[in-house]
Automatic annotation (TrEMBL):
Keywords: ATP-binding, Nucleotide-binding
Name recorded for this polypeptide: ATP-grasp domain-containing protein
Domain ATP-grasp: 107-293
PROSITE patterns (alphabetical): ATP_GRASP
InterPro entries for the chain: ATP-grasp, ATP-grasp_RimK-type, ATP_grasp_subdomain_1
One GO location term (cellular component): cytoplasm
GO molecular function terms attached to this record: ATP binding; ligase activity, forming carbon-nitrogen bonds; metal ion binding
Organism: Candidatus Shapirobacteria bacterium CG09_land_8_20_14_0_10_38_17
Length: 299
């Protein structure tokens, strides 16, 4: 079988996978986006230029895993457009001309498959301001393309919403980025479920420590612990990842403190796993590589 390619924004993001691959017989090539080369001198080929080797993205790999993307969508699109169906892509962020790494896209997929999401409104700040009373306060407002708890705001009342509107309207006009407003669900923490294909690899509970913080994210100082959830919630997470077409997914679920009802907050593509490894003891980079090899062999 041809090698597997794992691409990431930085060598730091690749390091856990490099360490995990030391005992694996299947060859895995690790590359930074800076090593991608495309020019007329290469006859239109897209190459990965390492110090001692040069790889043709189309001919030399059986599977490509985009570990992180961030500001490299141009290069990701270039690769996806270049390769044919014989090269498996995990996860395909742009498919059929549709950009899939947004909360709005996820919520449409989740809703159309009868999965529970928090009551929400997506659209311009004008629309959010006009219809906020339909959800009730407090509200959580997110950029549709935000991640890791960033660009997420708690709006407690109409006055706070007006202030938010005035602060971000010019940015919205310049960027064309819209927002997702969600009803705030009172909770004692949330759950991150790591899904690989149709299996759950591990579950952790995240709980905010700072009383002035409303987010439970580990990257924002949240406390973590290993968790056990009922099978119905695990199946919900697997289905959520499947309908969003994400093979390596971190599904975030919250339980309403009042009645215990579960809601899906988000399905994260290429999620962070340092906290989950600490909570569960699972070697997640190795599990992901094993999963990718299995996918490539079965394709």
């Amino acid at each position: 079988m041809k090698p597997i390619l794992i691409l990431a924004n930085s060598d730091k993001n690749l390091l856990p996978f490099q360490k995990a691959s030391s005992d694996i017989k299947q060859r895995v090539v690790f590359a930074n986006y800076r090593e991608i080369c495309f020019g007329d001198g290469d006859k239109g080929r897209i190459l990965i230029k390492k110090e001692r080797e040069i790889f043709d993205v189309q001919k030399d790999f059986s599977l490509i895993f985009f570990r992180t993307v961030k500001h490299n969508m141009e290069r990701v699109n270039l690769i996806v457009d270049y390769i044919d169906s014989q090269v498996l892509v995990v996860d395909r962020i742009n498919k059929g001309g549709v950009y899939r790494a947004t909360k709005a896209f996820q919520y449409r997929r989740l809703l159309s498959n009868d999965l529970p999401v928090t009551p929400f409104i997506y659209g311009s700040l004008d629309l959010l301001y006009e219809r906020a009373n339909l959800l009730g306060f407090p509200l959580v407002i997110k950029r549709s393309e935000g991640s890791q708890g960033r660009q997420v705001y708690l709006v407690k009342d109409k006055w706070s919403l007006r202030k938010f509107y005035q602060s971000y309207q010019k940015y919205e006009d310049r960027s064309g980025k819209y927002y997702l407003a969600q009803k705030f669900i009172d909770n004692d923490g949330d759950y991150r479920i790591l899904v690989l294909g149709n299996q759950v690899l591990g579950v952790m509970k995240r709980e905010r420590v700072d009383k002035n913080e409303f987010r439970n994210n580990v990257s924002l100082g949240g406390m973590i612990q290993k968790a056990v959830l009922p099978n119905s919630m695990l199946l919900m997470a697997i289905k959520a990842a499947s309908v969003c077409e994400i093979e390596v997914a971190g599904v975030d679920i919250i339980l309403d403190k009042e009645n215990g009802r579960p809601f899906i907050l988000e399905v994260n593509r290429s999620p962070q796993f340092k906290g989950l490894m600490k909570a569960t003891g699972v070697n997640i980079p190795k599990a992901i590589i094993d999963f990718l090899i299995k996918l490539a062999k079965n394709d």
